[in-house]
Amino acid sequence: MKQALPVYILSGFLGSGKTTLLQRLLDHWKAQGLRPAVVMNELGEVNLDGLLVEQSVPMAEMLGGCICCTSRGDLSTELTTLVKKESPDVVVIEATGAANPLEIVDAVTETSLYQLVELKGLITVVDAAHLLELYRSQQGSTYRLMQEQIRCASVLILNKTDRVTAEEADEISDVLRKWNAYAEILPAVRCGLEPEILLGSLGGVHLEGRDDEEAEEGITEGGESAQGTHTVHAHPTHDHVMAYTHYFKRAVNSEEFEQFVKELPRDVYRAKGIVTFSDTSSRFLFQYAYREADFMKITPQGEVPDVAVFIGEHFSSGELRTQLLQLEKRTLTRPGTVRRSL
Ligand SMILES: Nc1nc2c(ncn2[C@@H]2O[C@H](COP(=O)(O)OP(=O)(O)OP(=O)(O)O)[C@@H](O)[C@H]2O)c(=O)[nH]1
After folding, report:
1. Disulfide-capable partner of 37 in 58, 106, 243, 276 (CB 3.0 to 4.6 Å)?
2. What is the Å distance from ligand 1's center to 15 Cα?
3. Which fold has domain 5-200?
4. Mind telling me which Gene3D superfamilies this protein's record contains (predicted)?
């Protein structure tokens, strides 16, 4: 199966160091012989940050507004066009510092319904001095937005530590930990981190879509793991992930899938996808929001993968993945014969 295209979101308040980090990441990927592409969003009509990025890097620009305030479909369309036109190996979305990252996460996961893309993580860059100042005054919409950007990060870069004392850096680390108990906190000056360490800290091997085979090996024919339990934890659970994207390799039973959706953990507050069932004649688009699920028959235009995305906070994507692999495995051993007339 073709590898899903990794997508990273860079978030962080205005001037925190996102572009500085972006340049480091681009250099890293290029040195590896990869072809990165960028989606850049600026509040103004001119993309000044874009001028800092080498011309050889394909770029989609969304100017004159904040990604999260314009239609989410716009970002999805930009991303799709960029991927089709440039065939990059990796994509970074640098959002304006005033964006609410959750909306961007939603747009990326929306895209993964139609394209083989996968959200790998949300990196939030924090300006240590700026946050400390705001934390001490504890007010304002900037403060709330920063809080939001920190809360939903998969990894936090505590940048500009050269502008605070060691004690202040500790104080601000405690604040970050209080707001986001899951993301790794990486202190830095000019985002000078080893990209390998940063990207590695996004954890969630489950997000890499590479080890499906490996995890399946742990599941026996009856859908039980070799250890006799229903879940196989090849990797630590409860990684903080914003979204888990599952590309199905085969059809699943509709009733079992409905049951699975019904029993989704509370921390998954949004899910959507396109699935082929082994016991129905049509494909379905499913939507799930705040404990309500909806299934709709669809006939997608063009080639669309069977995929499900789950968005939430601090849920165990490894657990979901194992359950879905088990559903797939069960249809393999017990293909659907009775067709439901859905
Ligand atoms: N002192 C200090 N300055 C830094 C550090 N990291 C970045 N800067 C500077 O901070 C300024 C803003 O950095 P950018 O990387 O452009 O920040 P940004 O988040 O992309 O900014 P916006 O696009 O406006 O949201 C630049 O002048 C950087 O050189 C740091 O660790 N310490």
Report:
1. 58
2. 5
3. Rossmann fold (3.40.50)
4. CobW-like, C-terminal domain (3.30.1220.10), P-loop containing nucleotide triphosphate hydrolases (3.40.50.300)
